[in-house]
Predict the 3D structure of the following.
Amino acid sequence: MTSTWAPRTEHDRLTRTVASHGLAGSMLALPDQPLEPEVFDRLVRRVRRQRLTGLLWAAVRQGAMPVTSHQAERAEWAHVEALAGVLALEHLLLDSVATLQAAEIPTRVLKGPVVAHLDYPDPTWRTFGDIDLLVRGQDFDRATRLLTAQGHHRLHPEPRPGFDRRFSKGTSFRTADGLELDLHRSFTMGPFGVRLALDDLWRASHEFTVGGHTLHSLPAEERFVHACYHAVLGEISPRLVPLRDVAQLALTRDLDLVRVHRLVRASQGEAVVARAVRHAWHALQIADVLALSAWAQSYRNDDRETADLALYSHGSSYAAKSVASIRALPRWRDRAAFVRAMVHPTRAYLGTRHDSHVSRLRSGLSQSSRRPS
Amino acid sequence: MSVTTTHQRFARRLGTLWRDTGLHVLALPEEEAAEVVVLGGGSAVLWRLLAEPMTLADILDRLGAAADAPPEDVVTSCLADMSARGLIEDVAAERRG
């Protein structure tokens, strides 16, 4: 399936080249003279959309990408605007962690703020558009109540009380200022989320500092695995930033591969990590062969993995992922609770965007039950 | 805070969030409802210098080495402005009581 990852246009190739800036091993080369004004304008638009302004500005600042003085000003200003949002989000991060800490709820900060501070040469290189916090399932409901009491608006109600704590990926909040905070219980929804070895994620942590405050993230190996899950399962059309994160961690962190494989095996996520590494290597045209990339290249999915990965691609649905989640749950009692929540959700859940999901799920379950076993 | 005495030692205020593009520094004080401040020119240079606490004399001494060093009144004005915005503080004030 790597053919779908070939750059479709010159603009696509250029954007990927920006995404690979500073990454040893990438064969993508920045232009050796300033781009035509309309080409540069289009690049800036794409780079903003993909949250790559930090890498564009780093390339310009370091002289790796020749630009006119006007283009330099545009590149820096696009990045200044992105960074203003980043600081507001870090303020929200500190505020939210302090609230949860005061209630003795442990957290692990995920994605943008962590990799920016720990895994990139300069935190200015990596911007982000929301905040992601991981809490334990047992703390999820309390954390949700505390964040709601902070005045944040919960975007999606849970289907039934206790559902999110037991089964969901998490939920999202919007602040009065329009910032988004994602509270996670797991990395993803669907079968790969259900099978994730959640307890393993809490065995260790890595401290980092934001504005003089100590926060906890996952250790590098777990961060790498999460970057892989996010890159492959997070969005139907993966963005370049998560793929860059995968490559950044694989190429610049001295990852303990035994630990990575143990974590991934326990979560039955080998196919996810292998696909993420293959995609990152292909999208950013990385020539280096590491033990990890060699393993990813040679990894062959079994039928179940192929079917499960298809649930996260074009044409799949929330309902299909939910049905697959039910099948992935090891205990019948949990399966029954999941089905009950989906088929008989609360009134608050109905009337939201999930209403149609429920209808589709009912239909999906009904079709599924008519299939010969 | 006025910048008047040689006893003052200026430092970045703990808890301030910031990023440096190399040309501009963006800083957000810790206070609720604070807004992002974009520092350029002399203020950005001062922010970088204040990675460690310094007196006005230290600052002028360090800046003196540069050909385009700003005059003292510009430096004191920038320090007063950054202080008013909650970005820096006089860390010697507490000790002086």
Strands of chain B lie at 9-12, 17-20, 25-28, 37-39, 54-55, 88-90. Helices of chain B lie at 41-49, 56-64, 72-84, 93-96.
